[in-house]
Amino acid sequence: PTTYDVHAVQSKWRAVWDELEPFRAGSAAPGPDGQPAEKRYALTMFPYPSGDLHMGHAEVTALHDVIARYWWQKGYDVLNPMGWDSFGLPAENAAFRNDEHPATYTYANIATQLDSFRNYAISFDWSRRFNTSDPEYYRWTQWLFLKFRERGLAYRKNSPVNWCPHDQTVLANEQVVDGRCERCGAEVTKRELTQWYFKITDYAQELLDGLDELEATWPARVVTAQRNWIGRSEGAHVTFEIAGHDPVTVFTTRPDTLYGATFMVVAADAPLAASLVTDEQRPALEAYLDEVRKASDIDRLATDRPKSGVPLGVTATNPVNGEQLPVWASDYVLADYGTGAIMAVPAHDQRDLDFAKAFDLPVRMVVDTGEDDPAATYVATTGDGTYVNSGPLDGLRDKAAGIRTIIERLEADGSGTGTVNFRLRDWLLSRQRYWGCPIPIVHCEKDGEVAVPEDQLPVLLPELRGADLKPQGVSPLAAATDWVEVECPTCGGPATRDSDTMDTFVDSSWYFLRYCSPQYTDGPFDVEAVRQWMPADIYVGGVEHAVLHLLYARFFTKVLRDMGMLDFSEPFAAQLNQGQVINEGKKMSKSLGNGVQLGSQLEEFGVDAVRLTLVFAGPPEDDIDWADVSPGGSLRFLQRAWRLSGDVTSEPGVDVGTGDVALRRVTARTVHDADELLASFRFNVVVARVMELVNATRKAIDSGCGPADPAVREAVEAVAVLLSLVAPYTAEEMWSRLGHEPTVARAGWPSVDPALLVTESVTAVVQVKGKVKARLEVSPDVSAADLEALALTDEAVVRAIEGQQVRRVIVREPNLVNIVV
Ligand code: ANZ
After folding, report:
1. Are strands 494-497 and 485-487 parallel, antiparallel or unpaired?
2. Fewer beta carbons under 10 A from the terminal one: N or C of the chain?
3. Is the pLDDT of residue 90 over 90?
4. What range(s) does the Aminoacyl-tRNA synthetase class Ia domain occupy (predicted)?
5. Is 590 annotated as a binding residue?
């Protein structure tokens, strides 16, 4: 054929590959030394089945597949699995919008996405796929929950929680963005509920420390985001006596400013405020609280928010100087950070200063920075300076020493201790939603919380067809009487199942381990299989998961290690975040009407051209503006490459050693450089280099060594193998036209003769008195001066002119030096 029929080529090879299954993990041939091939685990984030695949999926998997396919070509045994994160809000909300049962809707989408992925020719090992909503999987999610609980890492507590009034569910702090629900954008409010938590705070320090090691191989922004989220602060707990009450402890990062404390503030919505308030002040506090409950944490912490609050009518004693400080309640102090109470140092903390200004409270400078007195300017000074008004610290200039001194004093008289505080909160995992993994606990009046015995797992999610499964504040499961009412596993008496389901992030915190032994029935994973594959060598996915998912997965890994099931502490050795596919400079969205449908692009240009476009657009981390790229251009390039394969006239296996050296050098250089470029994720540059090789080969065929030259075959075969990482259909078709069996995906990385990589040289002849005395190998662009110097220092030349006077040196670089004596 003389025209490249993209769609015919696609259906032809898809059928062959479905038969061949060339990407089964464990199928790599042993190395030349007879040893099993080295293992590589290429992981990419699994999708939510909330519709068909879109441009974002197309991009991330195209980039990811370059790595996986490259590893296969290099002879590694590659695990490249895929499955579905099929429980949870995204699929559930989409199902309700479509008026379907979440299970029906979810599994239909999975089938659609599976077919699309296969068509899109990502080298997944489909034999390992599973869905987190499969009972065979969530049985082990439940098992893990129970193990965590046994270790004291899963517990229930009553607390105010973030509540999304639209989704009718509790949200983790992580799911509240700018005071709004991360998923639906509704304004988040607060509610009191008894909820399940994972005690991730037990691992706060370790989660932080692990980042040091990941810094070299993880994107900097992810490491920074995790550090900030964990939010370690060094400081002190300082205890203030309050007459008639228990003492109150505050957390401060600046114990050295203790002499500048002029009042105390407690979180208005914490029980502490209610317990301290005098009877006269109680009505004022309650009125204030009604207002506070409406504000989000973000608003409350905003520095530009007008300060509000009420005095509680009591005073606290400053432990270093005995001063009586009025105690206020305000919403700018958060109930769940530190101790929920602060010592206010208005001179050196702007929020305290704003509060002092609003309520006319005293301001006392204790660090003289040389700037104007904050008491006059109402601008807090936060820099370093000399301590003043600070008793034993006066005159000192060293902040670290100041902090140390005060902590020592507090510790000596028992009124405080040095401490470390973390911003990280425990992970709230209960969801009042139907479509999730049931929590394997029953509540018995007599025995309290009782774990469902292991041999009764999984606790199946009841189908409840026909029932109203939409969220309404309590889990819809609570209304499923037949399911909820059970016998207590301990006493046999009446008990009720926990009707909440787990946060989807629980499901995705261990799925990468399950892929190592997806059919395993004796535990969540086969410890030995995991030892072979994990940690994943690369994790490709969106930066939107920089905090939540990645932190939770790291937490699970550390707990499983402590359970003796893993022998490593970090699950993902390296990470790559792709940019977004945008259009006309903007995020694609329905309201802007700038969405680009993956399906129509695939229809118009074919799979390979779309994949090539996504990989070629720029560095993987950069956004791709669909308005700036050219899938049509990609397709034309693929046609050019494909045409080469029809022009080759030499036979497969021909001795390439006799081929045209110039073309062979281009091929060798391209293959060699591709290796280095791929290792540093510069996939777009690899594509550019393959384009150059295609051009060089075309030239060689049309006006150089001609199509029969073995170097042409070598070049076109290299093009096919390199293209197999990005454009698998075209590559396979080329490979076939070159006389090979499928599949090019496992053909192996082209070998390169190192001699071809040496930069070219030319021979320069050196004559003395007209006689050739030396031949020098020099670069073709050697300078006249360098060539002359080389000639005059050559041993044979030095001997030939010994004792004679050099009268003239004629240089014709790069070929000739003529020395006249
Ligand atoms: C006195 C002080 C003086 C403070 C000063 C700062 C500067 P990070 O670094 O984020 O941990 N703080 C403590 N608990 C709080 C809460 N629940 N809500 C709001 N603010 C709280 O911040 C710790 C500092 O934030 C603490 O140190 C405390 O103010 C405030 F010149 O104490 B500092």
Report:
1. antiparallel
2. N
3. no
4. 38-224, 425-625
5. yes
**Which of 173, 230, 253 is the pocket-test mutation for ligand 1 (most atoms within 8 Å of CB)?**
253
Q: How far is CA 171 from CA 505, 732, 797, in A?
A: 12, 48, 84
DSSP characters over 40-53: EEEEEPPPP-SSS-
Question: Which atom of ligand 1 has the smallest separation from the CA of 233?
Answer: 11
Instruction: Give φ, ψ of 111 to 5 degrees.
Output: -60, -40
ipTM value: 0.95
In Å, how far from its chain's centre is CA 563?
25
Tokens (6 digits) for 333: 């102090």
User: Which residue from 237, 337, 387 has its CB within 8 A of the most atoms of ligand 1, so it is best to mutate?
Assistant: 337
Q: Sort 528 into a burial class: Cβ within 10 Å, 0-12 / 13-18 / 19+.
A: exposed
Average the pLDDT over 383-409 and give the result. Answer: 96
Instruction: Tell me which H or E stretch contains 791.
Output: helix 784-793
* pTM for this prediction: 0.88
Quick: pLDDT tens for 238-294. 999 999 999 999 999 999 999 999 999 999 989 999 999 999 999 999 999 988 877
* Tens-place pLDDT, residues 771-794: 999 999 888 888 899 899 999 999
| Greatest CA separation for the chain | 117
Q: Per DSSP, what are the bridge partners of residue 576?
A: 540
- Which of 252, 367, 406 to mutate for ligand 1's pocket (most ligand atoms within 8 Å of CB)? 252
* Ligand 1 atom at minimum distance from 345 CA: 3
Per the listing, tokens 């695990």 go with: 79
Q: How far is CA 689 from the centre of its chain?
A: 29
Neighbours of 233 (CB within 10 A): 14
